[in-house]
Design a protein that fits this description.
Elements (H helix, E strand, L loop, with lengths): L2 H14 L20 H35 L4 H6 L5 E10 L2 H6 L10 E3 L9 E13 L4 E12 L11 E5 L1 H9 L5 H14 L4 E5 H6 L4 H9 L19 E9 L11 E4 L11 H4 L18 E6 L4 E13 L2 E7 L26 E2 L9 E4 L8 H5 L8 H4 L2 E5 L4 E15 L14 E13 L2 H74 L12
Antiparallel strand pairs: 1-2, 1-3, 1-16, 3-4, 4-7, 5-6, 7-8, 9-10, 10-11, 11-14, 12-13, 13-15, 14-15, 15-16
Helix pairs in contact: 1-12, 2-12
Length: 543
């Protein structure tokens, strides 16, 4: 038997038998000590647990903590997410070509006004880049932060197919809105207004540049109205569809930081100091729900909806999940407007508070827009009552061109890509007693529709992808590698234990067999010695 086997057998004997001693020739206490099997198993098993533990830590602590840090307050991470990046505002105006027919009554066989959209077909698409920045950022003691967000627009001729100096024919919103406000007034007041319009040279339709219509123009009618009816219009200088948006803020937002209660992160607490508005006719419609429309709570699911308050629409809105996708390699959820967003009260009862309503699919915003008969909808009356698009030729609503969407990273709740398309329309008709309105047939006439689009790009996009997509993917694969390594390290002592027991069994089996052979040989030798006559020389027995 080799020394290795003998050493192994002795070690096994010492570990398994009580009272075992050293082999002959070796003094007690001088036994060569091997690491105890239990100690070795504990050491290897400890490495296995150490390898498997990071898997648990990454899944339970590291990734959720990283996501929370991306939006938690008052850390620097969320403030960095507030670094402004450009948003493109593309506006498509609607010019009424049948000016005489509209003002003097229909002459076409079907009696419809015929507007012409100066859009991609006519290569007119003035684009302005919108820049936003937050200021007056104040952290409050009640787990909220307050801020003002300022907006400015810069015209980009290189990305436009037309100039803001181009002239188009548009309804005179001031004249037609004032006429609608005078509809139920005494005839004497209507005659005075007709005389005033004539004196100032005001007509139902006007020929002005795109820039004037969008961003404001001087009009003597504004000064006259402010002089005699100071509370009718909020405008004191120029009047324009988007004049109040340029170089202005969207109101004082106070939102929850999520430091004390992470489930309330980004939710609006107050807007301009109000917890609800007073534009509408029901408490539900006046509620300020959701976020400010820029970030949402993380860890979204397909059942999640996007709620936000829009100061421009004077109401809270809700978007629903449509599908999953990717943006520049980043997984996203696409949220779209439900068909009931601008539905009237008869189609969707919760919207009854936004009435008085007309056809479904357009929202009356007159109560928050100086009582002018203005309506908000999707472009070309998409998702609205078909009678609206049929009443105005040249409109072709379709989902691809006229729907809105937001692509959100579901783990963080941060928008990656968005395209918000809305249309502003004016309800016009002839008002008896006001000659400027002529014989205008009642119609909801589109004024302008615009697309506000933007996407994360450049360094913010690269940083976002690295920290919240690439690194989690690496960690995800690493946890499986570490888990496999931990399992291997945990199996090593078990296998070692089994193999050691097998060696011990073989040793004792061979030892027992060897002792029996020796006893047989010794007995055979003794029998020879006793049976052989004296003087006989025995030959050496060879085994």
């Amino acid at each position: 038997m080799s020394p290795v086997n003998r050493h192994s057998g002795a070690a096994c004997g010492e570990s398994l038998l009580t009272g075992g001693g050293p082999p002959p020739g070796r003094a007690r206490g001088t036994w060569p000590r091997r690491p105890a099997l239990g100690s070795r198993s504990s050491c290897v098993g400890g490495w296995g647990l150490a390898a498997a533990l990071p898997t648990l830590l990454m899944g339970v602590f590291v990734l959720p903590s990283a996501v929370k840090d991306s939006g938690a307050w008052p850390g620097e991470g969320c403030v960095r997410m507030w670094v402004p990046f450009g948003v493109a505002l593309m506006s498509l105006a609607v010019s009424c070509s049948g000016l005489r027919e509209v003002a003097e009554g229909p002459t076409a066989p079907d009696g419809h006004p015929v507007p012409v959209q100066l859009g991609p077909a006519d290569h007119w698409l003035p684009t302005r880049r919108e820049f936003r920045h937050k200021s007056n950022i104040t952290f409050n003691d009640n787990d909220t932060v307050s801020f003002l967000e300022y907006r400015s627009f810069q015209f980009q001729p290189d990305k436009s197919h037309g100039l803001e100096s181009d002239y188009i024919v548009m309804p005179n919103i001031l004249v037609l809105a004032a006429a609608m406000l005078m509809e139920n007034k005494p005839m004497s007041l209507k005659l005075i207004m007709t005389l005033a319009f004539s004196t100032l040279g005001e007509r139902a339709f006007m020929n002005r540049t795109v820039g004037e219509i969008m961003w404001g123009y001087e009009d003597p009618l504004i000064h006259l109205i402010n002089k005699y009816l100071p509370n009718m219009f909020p405008f004191k200088g120029k009047f324009g569809l988007f004049a109040e948006l340029n170089n202005s803020d969207s109101g004082l937002f106070t939102v929850f930081t999520g430091v004390k209660d992470f489930s309330r992160i980004h939710l609006v607490d107050k807007w301009n100091g109000l917890s609800k508005v007073s534009f509408w006719h029901s408490d539900q419609c006046n509620m300020i729900n959701g976020t400010s429309g820029q970030m949402w709570a993380p860890f979204m699911t397909p059942e999640t909806s996007l709620e936000f308050y829009s100061p421009e629409a004077c109401r809270s809105m809700n978007l629903i999940y449509k599908e999953s996708g990717t943006f520049e390699g980043i997984p996203t959820y696409r949220f779209v407007a439900p068909s009931t967003l601008f539905a009237n009260g008869s189609v969707y009862p919760p919207n009854e508070g936004f009435c008085p309503c007309r056809e479904s699919g357009i929202q009356n915003v007159s109560t928050c827009r100086f009582n002018a008969p203005l309506f908000l909808s999707h472009p070309h009356f998409y998702n609205a009552d078909p009678v609206l698009a049929e009443a105005v030729l040249g409109l072709h609503p379709n989902q691809e061109e006229h729907s809105l969407f937001l692509d959100i990273h579901p783990v963080t709740g941060i928008p990656m890509n968005c395209s918000v398309k809305l249309q502003l329309s004016l309800y016009i008709k002839a008002i008896r007693g006001i000659g400027q309105t002529g014989k205008i047939q009642p119609v909801v006439l589109p004024l302008v529709w615009f697309e506000e689009s933007g996407a994360m790009e450049g360094k913010p996009l690269r940083t976002f992808y690295t920290q919240l997509v690439l690194m989690p993917s690496v960690l995800q694969y690493a946890q499986y590698v570490l888990l496999a390594l931990g399992c291997v390290l945990l199996l090593i002592p078990i296998i070692h234990q089994i193999r050691s027991q097998e060696k011990c069994y073989l040793f004792w089996s061979s030892s027992k067999k060897g002792s029996k052979d020796k006893e047989a040989i010794q007995a055979y030798s003794e029998s020879l010695m006793t049976s052989a006559p004296k003087g006989t020389v025995l030959q050496e027995a060879r085994l």
